[in-house]
Amino acid sequence: IMRPAGGTTRWEAMLFPFEKVSYDFSDCNYLSLCSTPLEHALTITGHPCLRLWLELDQVDTCISVYLICKWEGKQYYVTEGHCNAKHKCSQEQDADPMLSLDGVPFHSFQRADGFQPDSMPKPVQVEFSLFPTSFQFLAGQSIELLVGTADHLHFGTEAKKGDQEHKKNITIVQGDAMLCSLQLPVDNNVDVGVEASDNLV
After folding, report:
1. Cα(188)–Cα(100) distance, integer angstroms
2. Distance of CA 70 to the CA centre of its chain
3. pLDDT means per 10 residues in the chain (201 residues)?
4. Can you give the pLDDT at residue 198?
5. Is the preceding peptide bond at 48 cis, omega within 30 degrees of 0?
6. In this structure, how many other beta carbons lie within 10 angstroms of the beta carbon of residue 132?
7. What is the four-CA torsion angle of 24, 25, 29, 32, rounded to 10 degrees?
């Protein structure tokens, strides 16, 4: 059974303005993909973009991911993203120029543009962006990506079918022409001459 992040999420902080965002990943059992500690500081500003190749047993499958700063065994929230695998990423030339951003995957979310149960390829390529952010990873810290199914604790529509969501099988495929990737919007204009210390996180 998938266990999403707990604590005070960005969604709850918007409802309760005196609560600060404070995620708790201690009980979260999402798949963890973690880098080695960074040799140099890295600043990102914009939309991180994720591409996954997935084997799914159901078309209507929600994917939730968290981008994490990991340091000395602790996990610090950076941003997150959510997408239903049935929403096919539109080709760049088909993207609505009024709604799309350069380099950011675009979805129309129209039923006609999505995958249908009898037409979904196996494996399927899922592309989506995470919420925009500006964050500096310091030397010695690691970049972690947590990947799981629907966050039924924080999204009401999924809470109603949480049991069904837990039974969905997802396999991440990697190899040959099917390359999974996380593209970070690196800001090269920031002077990064610091290392991680107790008072910098």
Report:
1. 23
2. 15
3. 78 80 85 94 94 84 91 93 79 53 70 72 85 95 91 60 58 84 84 44 32
4. 39
5. no
6. 14
7. 160
CA distances from 95 to 17, 98, 113 (A): 35, 9, 11
- The token duo for 162 is 């949480």
Residue 162 backbone phi and psi in degrees, to 5: -60, -40
User: Nearest-CA neighbor of 13 among 134, 154, 156?
Assistant: 154
Rounded Cα gap, residues 77 and 100, in angstroms: 26
**Residue 164: its H or E element:** helix 162-166
Ramachandran angles phi, psi of 171, nearest 5° = -125, 125
Residue 128 structure tokens: 């989506």
User: What stretches of 111-163 adopt beta strand conformation (E)?
Assistant: 124-129, 133-137, 142-149
| Nearest by Cα to 146 from 78, 85, 44 | 78
- AA letter at 23: Y
Answer yes or no: are the C-beta atoms of 190 and 43 closer than 8 Å. Answer: yes
Closest CA to 72 of 41, 37, 43: 37
CB 149 within 8 A of CB 56: no
Nearest alpha carbon to residue 52 among 8, 82, 14, 94: 82
Alpha carbon distance 162, 174 (integer Å): 28
pTM (2 d.p.): 0.80
Instruction: Dig out the tokens for 198 from the structure.
Output: 């107790």
